[in-house]
Inverse folding.
């Protein structure tokens, strides 16, 4: 009988501690990821926050929000038991699924590409035309014409003084004119070599001119289009040839690394988009709804998020592997997500 007393006391203490633990408020990890979660004065707001408040109210859960600076820190806290659930712009990926459990998806979007919206029209064409590449091609052509003009003057100045005579400057000028007319195949006929050396040079220059004018034409076309080709981005296939920005330790950065695309890493989406706006990067890869919301709040017309997603992803709450909390949250979310009130929340924040 005496031996049962300590066992009875231990059982009572265990039940008491369990009840106290179960009554303790949940620790909910959150980070700023508008429009899913962001601080608004002394409280938090956003799509995920409003959904969590509805879920907690329906399930009768007490909780306290604990802010984190990065998504990686927030997910690690849940994995290590320092937080019970994480909310915000959390996309479900295979790598995260191995570490954590996720609730019912609350929204489906995915990774997008933000880039500068390049203006079109004649102004862009003229800016591209008057570039160093264009002027270097013109300078090279002038030097070649001048060289050929000098050679024809040296060969013709004595045997053909009527057309290539006069002072040195006049003779070289006449040779320059002949080389330009010959290259463009205009053939005015006002000047023509009469010496054997001059005619051989003329014959060679006619064939060389075909190659020269073709190369010059290609250089002009390249100078008009090269800048647009280097910065214009239509989809994921263009990313390997441009400078890309992404937030470190996010699904966007992981996708870029998995596809062998070099990228600059930033602390948050705002800094990544700022790098694109300043020309430090050509594109940013990240959560499409987050980037669209930030750009709409800035009223920035110089950047846009491409309509085609790089990869579709679902957004959900994260809990620890095997957490009994997942079943409770799923049941509440299945009741809330089909409602008209939830569709109004999505429309208010995401315009859909």
């Amino acid at each position: 009988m005496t031996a049962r007393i300590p066992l009875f006391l231990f059982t009572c203490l265990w039940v008491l501690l369990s009840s106290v633990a179960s009554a303790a408020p949940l620790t909910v990890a959150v980070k700023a990821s508008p429009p899913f979660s962001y601080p608004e004065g002394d409280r938090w707001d956003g799509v995920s926050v409003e959904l969590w408040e509805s879920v907690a109210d329906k399930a009768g859960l007490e909780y306290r929000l604990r802010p984190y600076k990065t998504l990686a820190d927030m997910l690690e806290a849940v994995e290590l038991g320092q937080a019970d659930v994480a909310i915000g712009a959390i996309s479900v990926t295979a790598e995260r699924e191995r570490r954590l459990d996720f609730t019912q998806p609350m929204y489906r979007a995915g990774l997008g590409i933000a880039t500068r919206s390049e203006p079109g029209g004649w102004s862009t064409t003229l800016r591209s035309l008057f570039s160093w590449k264009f002027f270097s091609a013109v300078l090279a052509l002038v030097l070649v014409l001048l060289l050929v003009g000098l050679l024809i003057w040296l060969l013709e100045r004595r045997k053909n003084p009527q057309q290539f005579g006069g002072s040195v400057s006049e003779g070289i000028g006449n040779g320059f004119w002949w080389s330009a007319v010959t290259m463009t195949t205009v053939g005015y006929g006002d000047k023509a070599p009469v010496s054997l050396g001059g005619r051989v040079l003329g014959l060679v220059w006619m064939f060389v001119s075909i190659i020269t004018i073709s190369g010059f034409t290609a250089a002009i076309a390249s100078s008009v289009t090269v800048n647009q080709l280097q910065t214009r981005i239509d989809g994921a296939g263009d990313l390997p040839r441009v400078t890309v920005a992404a937030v470190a330790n996010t699904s966007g950065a992981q996708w870029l690394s998995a596809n062998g695309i070099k990228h600059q890493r930033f602390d948050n989406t705002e800094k990544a988009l700022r790098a694109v706006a300043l020309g430090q990067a050509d594109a940013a890869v990240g959560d499409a709804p987050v980037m669209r919301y930030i750009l709409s709040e800035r009223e920035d017309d110089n950047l846009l998020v491409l309509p085609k997603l790089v990869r579709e992803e679902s957004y959900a709450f994260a809990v620890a592997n095997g957490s009994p909390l997942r079943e409770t949250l799923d049941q509440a979310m299945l009741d809330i997500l089909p409602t008209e009130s939830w569709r109004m929340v999505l429309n208010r924040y995401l315009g859909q």
About this structure: The longest strand covers residues 107-116.
